[in-house]
Write a structure and sequence with these properties.
By secondary structure, the chain is α+β, with helices and mostly antiparallel strands. It has 4 helices and 5 strands.
């Protein structure tokens, strides 16, 4: 596995306050490109950005995990160091994506489940786990 840095963007769902205020989504997605929209919902041509993955607000975290994080987690189980890093401003959806909820688990609980399933399938090995999850404000 070669060293790689991939960048994935997830547009967070609108929160209850935004929905009640009548706010619409301020981003338009086209494949791996995300474009900011003005107050009228029109794309701003100079505010368009392309990434390795762009996920819309309705995308399930399981799909995001499968597309972005699963290979990193399996690679770590096979001895390759891996990092999954969430970055964004306050209220941008980091906790929603990384931790999730009881009804839709985030990347961290999905990764933990993947690791323990992997360990369970490799009973001929002894395992020592060292995991760090850090939330910095």
């Amino acid at each position: 596995m070669a060293d790689q840095i991939k960048v994935a963007i997830r547009v967070r769902p609108l929160n209850d306050r935004e929905i009640q205020s009548g706010h619409g989504q301020t981003w338009q997605i086209d494949a791996n490109t995300i474009t900011q929209c003005n107050q009228n919902g029109k794309p701003i041509p100079t505010a368009s950005f392309t990434f390795d993955h762009v996920f819309n607000a309705n995308e399930h975290t399981q799909h995001i995990y499968d597309q972005v994080a699963k290979n990193i987690v399996v690679g770590a189980c096979e001895g390759v160091h891996g990092t999954i890093f969430a970055y964004g401003q306050t209220s941008s959806g980091k906790t929603h994506t990384m931790i999730g909820s009881e009804s839709e688990p985030g990347i961290v609980p999905l990764a933990i489940e993947e690791i323990f399933n992997y360990i369970d399938s490799c009973r001929e090995r002894d395992w020592l786990l060292h995991v760090q999850v850090i939330e910095i404000y």
